[in-house]
Write a structure and sequence with these properties.
This protein is of the alpha+beta class. Helices cover about 20% and strands about 40% of the residues. The chain has a 6-stranded antiparallel β-sheet, covered by helices on one side.
Length: about 110
């Protein structure tokens, strides 16, 4: 089983959210660049990973696609992946001002 959570914000830029989450959770994020996703930030946690990325993804036709089109108001997304539910992680992320829990899926 894998537990996925999606959070969003229109209050913070991706870089600001990286700093806030780094400070709150004591994590180090690495910037990555993907042809599909654009620039995003990745941090490993003991039981999974956290990714932060802009919701708008640049594409070739000069118009941005949304990574999460079901959440167009969220300019920046935070995605968590853990093997099992992690209530402590969720509590810590819920305490970040301006960050809203948008979705939860279990696969």
């Amino acid at each position: 089983m894998t537990d996925h959570h999606t959070y969003g914000t229109s209050t913070h830029t991706a870089d600001e959210l990286v700093q806030l989450v780094s400070d709150r959770l004591g994590l180090v994020f690495t910037e990555r660049d993907s042809d599909y996703r654009g620039v995003y930030h990745l941090a490993g946690i003991p039981n999974g990973q956290i990714e932060i990325q802009p919701n708008p993804i640049p594409v070739d036709d000069d118009e941005d696609d949304l990574y999460a089109p079901e959440h167009p108001a969220a300019q920046v997304l935070l995605l968590t992946t853990t093997p099992t539910p992690d209530p402590a992680l969720r509590t810590r992320l819920d305490s970040v001002e301006g960050l809203t829990h948008l979705n939860h899926e279990t696969a």
